[in-house]
Specification:
Helix content is 49%, strand content 5%. The protein is mainly alpha-helical. The strands form two sheets. A two-stranded antiparallel ribbon has the order 1-2. Strands 3-4 form a two-stranded antiparallel ribbon. The protein is globular and about 65 Å long.
């Protein structure tokens, strides 16, 4: 008989998906999958994601992929957006985000507008059935941008550069988040 292995010695393993060639990779599906995974992780926390929301798609008997109904319902009800938006936008308990429109308004107050093909996304677009995925992707992208702006401010980047690196007097202060990230990478 073999030895019994101590549970503390067991390492968690992750099964990596097969790598597809560039020609066979479905970029729109990949973007949707990653964006939804980010939204769900922000809404529930990385360690508390419900099992039925870990993979956003299921395959039917005809081998066609569809968004899982529980996830579609959460997108239509704005539950995921309100949860993630409250965390990302540091919404206080006195003014919780309730509904698509509240999240859109909170983003707009920070100068971030939810647009799909240069058109403002409305609550009606986000509640439409069947799911208007481009509107939902625009909402998720804007929430991601808000998270980036909150996490990576010009001031935080410059303080980090000054703390850990020699500051070259010729380096100009970045003018926005993207420029700040580039400056941080270069330094």
């Amino acid at each position: 008989m073999g030895e019994v292995q101590d549970a503390r010695d067991v390492k968690k393993t992750c099964v990596a998906p097969a790598v597809k060639s560039f020609e066979h990779y479905d970029f729109p599906r990949g973007k949707i999958c990653c964006s939804l995974a980010w939204l769900v992780a922000k809404a529930y926390g990385t360690d508390s994601i419900p099992a039925d929301l870990k993979d956003p798609f299921y395959t039917d008997q005809y081998e066609q992929e569809h968004l899982k109904p529980p996830l579609a319902s959460l997108l239509l009800s704005a539950d995921l957006y309100c949860r993630a938006g409250s965390l990302v936008l540091s919404s206080d308990a006195d003014h919780p985000l309730l509904g698509h429109d509240a999240v859109v308004q909170a983003l707009a107050q920070r100068g971030l507008y939810v647009t799909d093909q240069e058109r403002l996304v409305t609550e009606r677009d986000l509640r439409k059935r069947p799911l208007q995925m481009s509107a939902h992707m625009a909402m998720i992208d804007t929430l991601m941008m808000a998270y980036t702006v909150e996490t990576v401010s010009v001031e935080k980047v410059m303080a980090c550069i000054c703390q850990y690196s020699y500051r070259d007097p010729e380096v100009e202060t970045p003018y926005d988040t993207e420029d700040a990230v580039n400056t941080w990478i270069n330094k």
